[in-house]
Design goal:
alpha+beta, five-stranded antiparallel sheet, about 30% strand
């Protein structure tokens, strides 16, 4: 697998399309950090790290509206990819849907959202947009 982050986002996207409640993805430290951010920002209901085997898995409980049809995540878009890395400085931070969505960045201080990176005045690699 050349792009595990794209695989992670695709698994979430497919589970949302199929209206699944829980999706399991292979774990990595970067995926764990992205999952924590999604939970903190209210895009997913809950998550659990399961240590089984050498790699482990992440169980993600998806969040839907009270009617069961509307989902919290409308779009998951991979920005930086192995063939074309996308970096940004803190002055040129991308705004997702005029500030309503989030951009997840990998910085020298760890994985964080665009707003947190702007406050700390650091840039990094733009991993994905979520809204």
């Amino acid at each position: 697998m050349t792009d595990p982050i794209a695989d992670y986002l695709t698994r979430l996207r497919n589970a949302i399309q199929a209206k699944h409640r829980v999706v399991e993805v292979p774990a990595s430290n970067l995926k764990k950090e992205i999952t924590k951010i999604l939970f903190e920002k209210g895009y997913i209901l809950n998550y659990q790290f399961v240590e089984d085997g050498p790699q482990g898995t992440i169980k993600v409980a998806l969040k839907y509206g009270s009617d069961g049809k509307s989902n919290a995540i409308k779009c998951l878009k991979r920005v930086s990819r192995p063939g074309l890395r996308t970096y940004t400085g803190y002055k040129d931070m991308p705004r997702v849907i005029n500030g309503l969505g989030i951009a997840i960045l990998s910085t020298s201080k760890g994985v964080m959202t665009d707003k947190e990176a702007s406050e700390l005045k650091i840039g990094g690699e733009v991993l994905c947009y979520i809204y």
